Structure formats: structure tokens, C-alpha cells
Amino acid sequence: MAVSESPRKLLPNTETRKLLLKWLVAVLVPVCVFTYVWVGEQMVNGVWLSLLYPDVTSLDHDPWSLIIQSLFLLLVYGSAIALSGYLVAADSGRRNMLEVWFDVAFATVVPLVLLAVTSNLLISIGLAVVVWGIYLFVRTRIRRARHYTPPAPLASLHVIDDKERGALLRLAQQAGLWFGIIFAVITLVADIIFFATDQLAPLLLIWVAVRTVLLPVAGYFLGRLGGRMALRYTVAPDAGIEVAQSEGAQRGRMGWRGNARKVSREEQLQSLSASRASEEARDVVPNDKPLQSRGATRIYLMLLMTFVVLYPILDPILFGSGTKGRITSYGDLGFYVILALGLNIVVGFAGLLDLGYVAFFVIGTYAWSMVGSPQFYVLTGMIARPEIFSWFFWPMLIIAALLTALWGVLLGAPTLRLRGDYLAIVTLGFGEIIPIVFTQMDKYTNGTDGIAGVYPPATPCIGSFCLNWSNSPTPYYYLILILIGVCIFANVRLRDSRMGRAWIAIREDEIAAASSGINLVNTKLFAFAAGAFFAGIAGVYHAAKLGTVAPGDFNSTDSIIYLAMVVIGGLGSIPGVLVGAVVVYAINLLILNQLDTYASDPSNFLHFLPQLIHNFTFSNVRNLLFGIILIVIMIFRPEGLIPSARRRRELHHTTNEDEEAEPSALDQPPGTPEFEAEMKVE
Amino acid sequence: MATFLNLLIVGLATGAIYALIALGYTMVYGIIELINFAHGDIFTLGTFVTIAILSMLGVTAANPPSTMSWVLVSELALACIGSFLFCAVLGVLIERVAYRPLRNAPRLAPLISAIGVSLVLQDVGKLWFGNTNVSFVSLPIGSVQMGPVNVDVINIFVLVVAIILMAGLQLLVTRTRIGRAMRAVAQDRDAAALMGVNVNLIIGVTFFIGAGLAGAAAFIYSLKFPNTYFYLGFEQGLIAFTAAVLGGIGNLVGAMFGGLIIGLIYSLVTLIPATVLPHGGNAWNKAVIFAILILILVFRPSGLFGQNTPEKV
């Protein structure tokens, strides 16, 4: 750790200068790109202009939208400053500056530039993932060629006393302050240039002046906040019982307890196996990868969630016209996410290869469309009046999910004795049978024509404010957001539950799990039921949103697409599955369609393809692309884009995630503590 | 009765084709324990190659030959050999590119990669012949009266060719040096390598023969059925794989009988009247096949002919 003396001055000393340079550049560059390449500056100015010039009609004066926008901007810039404080305080300073800059550039600058260029969220995410993948590949190659060896992981465990805590906090403050000053100068210069070229309204100069003063002050306090966040993850010194007791009298009992817990954490880390400890050490401050540590991840998550929640209001400002279509398609993306989460339980957690997952989705879809549509009359002779039956959507969400869970058990039961590949083919069979059944039982399901006029859900009006389910996609967006939230929560809780651990155990080794007292029948059936449950929820939502259901919409290729989402993202990893669903959906529905419009345009350079190959369209080669992606991912990154920690450890037994050589504890002779720690069952 | 007998013969001929495809699945599974999802799509490309070769020789669906002649027979033989070789080489290539790098990966990895290859091949087929049905050449072969039934000669031809191929394969596997090496690799890859067997070569040969049989099956299919399209192989492959599982995957005899049984079921299901199942049995044949497969697997989890090997810990 570079901080040995406490920097009281506002100017950084020579030791910390390098640390500040490293992180200020790393944070400032994306922030500047956001501000000037993408929409940051426009949004800020837009908000101020509509406040300052209430007479100009071309500006957006909707107060609700303005509040949301300023909230979003405050969060973005505030968290960027706090992040710089956090990163400076959390960094162990052992990693190369250039390495960090490249990582940050490819993770943030590339997507932001893509967003600015394409102004299409999904396309830029998809392309950014591709670029990121290529970058990782090249980075690994270069590292290998240069025989790069990263610092040994456990050595970064650093015990921090009160003096050093104070120093770290001041360092974080310094980082925030300097961030504020530099950013204020950059924006000031930019705005002066804009003003000189007559691109800035004169009244905005007030804001420019206020901002120039405000930014360093805000930086000082927000940097301190980031430093506090970092300090939460430090390892405090082992004060010993005597010291703790004498201090306990002054600090109260909590101080003693807090100390005791942290000491035990240090010991705990020391006793873990090398690979496990390197993961845990990532969250301890200071660490080698502050960008990936838990505190920073919390900031990213907070930003992401704000963005997602506020999205329908931000969309027209960020991407221009066509909001309705985009929000509709994100509503569709939502049910893919739920399906991928459900399939992840069966395939990712329990390791039961299910190639017929679409069957449960079909059952869920038909469950609502048979009740909440005129088809109900055909089935029961009772007229399903929309104003009443729309309300049944909410109970049906649960009932249909339970129904599909029951089907999961029914279909799972005969497969219990089957292993691996036999299971795969039987589930594939189910995926084929169920759509056939729904096609041929046309007395009940209306056959290939399907069921039309499925009712949307209904919600009570609050005063004069009613949700418009039939015309606006926004209620569906929020509905699916809530459903996804519930599903992620359920997924996480299931994974960490007793049942979840049993799933992982049977995934790893069925016989060993059974001999350890795990009831294979119950565990497997529960996995099928839980997976099917989510498919049921997704099905009901899909039926209500689309309004029509036909058996031709579902076939076994769909099951494979769902599987591709789970595998591309990372089997068993919940964030991975979310990313996988987004990437597959982006490729599937947006990028290919977009490329088709390019290819059909004679002036575009892609136009040669349809001329070269007869009946070529990009949507036609969708599966070709998917196939190649699947093969490439399996060969180069079999654990997926964002693998779960456990699987990463499994698949790279001697090397960690960057395929860096790492001394294994088993290289030690027996009898040494490292060896004994590795031999201990985790 | 005549209908039943006719369906029986049609079923046997269809089943023989399924059996040929199933052999490819079962051989690959036996040797590297992988469901080769791409196998069905190799079969599709086989049908396309058959059409392509015949049309290059001037025999097209739009301009079918009116009489059988030795020239036509030699052209057909050429198409058959071409399809066999094309598929065989394709199979070896796929193994080299998509499966060999993953030989020591976790079990799900090569399976996903196989699904990937399958998707790729489907779209290659789609680019080649489009998104529509492509007609085969209809040959001027009549039918013969055998007792009460009027049998298409083509069915008998299909059966005969399939039986010759299967017998040849059986001989190859049980009587030759290569066959012995294949069995050795299937039993224990490491031990076989220690005994001086070139494991990579043998796996390559297995893919060559397995995929080649799919090519031959594709040629026979083109004689018996009216048309093909890019998704055909995936569907037929699924049924053929069901046949392989039914017989006990990894077992050659099992795959042959499994294929025949599935073919018979496929054809005899048509007899189910519309009063039992809506729209008659024909609409349900795939569902019935999978239902039977599931039923059989419930009672014999390793198929009809498979040995129930106890799991090693």
C-alpha cells in the first residue's frame, strides 16, 4: 500500500499521485464520453433550458419528466464521483495503470460510443459484448505471449489500523475533490467554447458558474462517501482481547463485537483454499481488482436499476422517436429473461439437461388464454366478460404457474431414473409432443388458428389515473420488471437454500449426493417444478401481452434458444443468465433485422451479400450465427460470459478467470498449512 | 388386411432408413458418449447433395427419366457414392472443428457445441436450397403383386440396400482390425491408447462411417419420399435418435431394431381412427413415438438392447 503518511494537504504527494492519476483518468474518460459524446450535456442543458425559458414551446416542460431526468443525472454524476473515491481507497496499487485503462475503456467507453452512434440500446449492448469478448481474447493472448504473471492473490490481504483508515479516507476525499476540480475545468472550457461559437443560451451561463463552484465541493463530500464505502470492507487489526476490552469500555460493546467479527474474517480468509480465497479477497480493501469488488458492483447495480426503472421516461430523450415500439420489445425481452431464469434452475443448478422447456411455456400461455378469452365460452358455456375476467389475470398468474409446476412434476417423474443424455432426449420429446397436443385437440384449443382476443390484465384506477393496458406498452414494461425482480429474488433464495445446495450437489455427482443423504427423487422433481413454475409465469404474461396464441409459435428450436441464453450467459449464474437473455434477444430480434435493412439498401456496403448468395437475408442465417456463437463459446469460454464463481473454479482448476497461472496450495508439501487448508472440505 | 400388410412393408422400409441414421448416432455415442445433434442435419445435406449431383448429371425433378436404363442406374450409383462421401467428410470435419477441442471438457460442452453445429448446418441448407420444399426425382419404378398386396418395388430396394449396409457395418465392427480398435476405444479410450490404438484416427473413422451411412440413408430417402427441406434432418434425426435410444444407445444391433420398430410404429399409427384420437393417428405419429419412447425408458432406462451398467463411483 502506497499510503504511509497521511496526506493533509489537498495536493497529492508523489506516492499517491500515481494512484490518483490511474483512477481519475479511468473514471473521468467515461464520464466525459457520457457527457459530450452521448447525451449527458444535452440532458442537463435541456432540463435547465425548460426551467429558464418557460415560453419556448419546442422544449419539453413536463414536470414529471424533468424531475426524473434531473434525478437520473444527479445519480449518474454523483455515483461517478463517489466511485472515484471508492476506487482510490480500495486499490492496492499493484496492478498496472494501462491495464485498468484498457479494461475501463472497453467496458464503458465502447458501449457509450456505440450508444451514441447507433442510438439503439440492444444493438449497442450486443455489439459491445462482441467487442468485449474479442478484447478479452486478445488480452489473454498478449498476456500469455508476454509471460505476464499477476501478483499472488492472498498477499493482498492487508490489515488496516485506525491511522491508515484515516489516511485512506483522506485519500478518497482528495480523489473526489480532484475529480470535481478537473471535471469542472473541462466542462467550463467546453461551455466557454460553446458560448463563443453561439451554441449556448446566455442564461445558461448562470448554471455554468454555479456548477464550477459546486463540483469541487460535491466532489469533496462524495469522495468521502466513496471512501467510507471502501473502508467497510477493510480487515481491521487483531487488537487482542485485552485491548478490545479496555477499548470496549470507551466504545461500547458494539465496537468490541465489530472488531472480533473482522478478526475472524481475516482468519477465515487465511484458512480458505487459494482459489476460493482469491475470490473472497477481491472484496477486501485494499485489493487488486477494485473495479470488480463488491462495493463498486453495488454502485453499478444501483445505477443500472435506476436506469431500468426510469427507462420509459428517459427513453424519448435518450433515443428519440419510436419509444412505444422499443418499450414493447423490451417487454418481450422480459419474458425471455424469466424463461432463461427458470431454465437455469433445471439446467444450471440441478444439471438436468432439459431440451423441451418450451412445453411448460406453452402450457402457461394456454392456461391464461383459455380462461381470459372468448374461448372460455367454448370450454365451459359461460361467457367470459372482459371487464370481469381481466381481473382474474392476477390470480391466474399464480394458478397457471402452479399448474405448470404440477406438469413439471408429471413430466419429470418418468425421467427420474434416466441419466444425462437419455433425459435430454425425453425432454426433447415432451417439447415436441405438447405443441402437437395443443394443435390437434382443436375442440378445446382452436387448433392451428390458436386463440385470439386474449384479455389484458386489469388494475384499479387511482382517482382519475388509470393504467392503459390495451394501448400502452408501459404498464407491461413495469409488470414484467416486477415479475423479473420477483423471479431473480426467488432464484437467488432458491440457490442459497438447502434445496439449492442439494441441486448443485446432484449436478456435481449424483451418486455422491445420494450417498450423502440427498433424496434424489424429491430434489429432481422440485427442480423440474421450480423451473416449470417460472415458465408458467412467463407464459401467462406472454398470452396477455400478445393477445393471440397459436401452437405454431412454439417449436423445439425455441427450447434450444432458451438453452443458448443460459449457456451463453453462464450456466448456474444468475447475472450471467440475464446477460445471456439480453444478448440472444438482441442478436435474434434486433441486430439481424437491422442488418437486413442495411443489406437491402443498395448504397450500403453490405448490399453485396444478397447479390452474392441467392435468397440471403440476415434473419435467414440467424441460426447460423447462433450456432457459430455456441461453438465458439463452448471452445473458448465453456463457462459462459459471466460464469458463476463455483463453476469458474471447477472449469479452471489451476488457473483463475483470466487464465493466469496461480500457485496451487497442492503444490506445497503435505503438512504445510496451505496444503492442509486445500485438503479441508469447503 | 391388404392395407395393414402394405403399411407393414412401408413401415419396414421407412424403419430401415431410420435405422441407417440411428446407426450414426449410436456409433458416435458409443465411442465418445456424445449425442451428435448435427447428425440429422448431415442427413439433410446428404439429400441436397443427391439432388445436386443428379441435376448436374441432367436428371432433375422437372425432367424425370421415363425408363430405367443402365445409364440411369450408374448415375444413381454415382449420386449414392457422392452423398456418402460428402457426408462422411463433413462428419469428420465437424468432429475435428467442434468436438475434438472439447474432448476433455465437461459433458454439457460438446453437446451444446453439437447443437450449434446443427443450427449452422440447417442454415447452410436453407441458404443452399431456400426455405421451401425441394422435390426429388421420381423414378420410373413400378410395383409388383405379392400375394394380396401390391408392393412398390422401391420399398423392397430400400430394404435390401439398408440390410446390405447394416450387414457390412456389422462385419466391419466385429471382424476387422479397425472394428476391433473401435470397440476398444469405446470401452476405454486411455487403455486403447496405451495398447497402441490411434484414438484420434479411430474416432475420425467412426465419424466417417457414421456420417457416411447418413449420406447413404439420404440417397435412399430421396428414392422413396417425394421431397426434402432444410429442417427435414432435424425432425427425422430426432426420430432416428429416438430409435437409437429405444434400442439402447451405443448398441449397433439395438439401433437397427430400434429403427425398424420406430418405422413400423410410424406407419401403423395411421390405422388409429379419428374416433380415438382427433384427426386420426397420422397427425399424432410423432407424439405417439415419443410417448412410446418415454414409456419404454421408464421401464428399461437403458433401452431395449442396452446393458444396464451399474454406475461407477
UniProtKB/TrEMBL annotation, chain A:
Q: Where is the protein situated, by its record's location annotation?
A: Cell membrane
One MF term from GO for this chain? Answer: branched-chain amino acid transmembrane transporter activity
Ordered alphabetically, the record's keywords are: Cell membrane, Membrane, Transmembrane, Transmembrane helix
Could you name the domain of life of the organism this protein comes from?
Answer: Bacteria
Keyword Isomerase listed: no
This protein's GO cellular component annotations are: plasma membrane
**Which residue windows are coiled coil?**
none
Q: Where are the transmembrane segments?
A: 20-39, 66-88, 100-116, 122-138, 175-197, 203-223, 299-321, 333-353, 360-379, 391-410, 422-441, 476-494, 525-544, 560-591, 612-636
Query: Which residue intervals make up region (Disordered)?
Result: 650-682
Q: How does it sit in the membrane?
A: Multi-pass membrane protein
| Name under which the protein is recorded | Branched-chain amino acid ABC transporter permease
Q: Which organism is it from?
A: Dictyobacter vulcani
From TrEMBL, chain B:
The residue ranges crossing the membrane are 6-30, 42-62, 68-93, 153-173, 194-223, 229-249, 256-277, 283-299
Q: How does it sit in the membrane?
A: Multi-pass membrane protein
Q: What keywords tag this UniProt record? A: Amino-acid transport, Cell inner membrane, Cell membrane, Membrane, Transmembrane, Transmembrane helix, Transport
Cellular component per GO? plasma membrane
Where in or outside the cell it occurs: the entry states: Cell membrane
Q: Which family does it belong to?
A: Belongs to the binding-protein-dependent transport system permease family. LivHM subfamily.
Name of the protein in question: Branched-chain amino acid ABC transporter permease
Q: Which organism is it from?
A: Dictyobacter vulcani
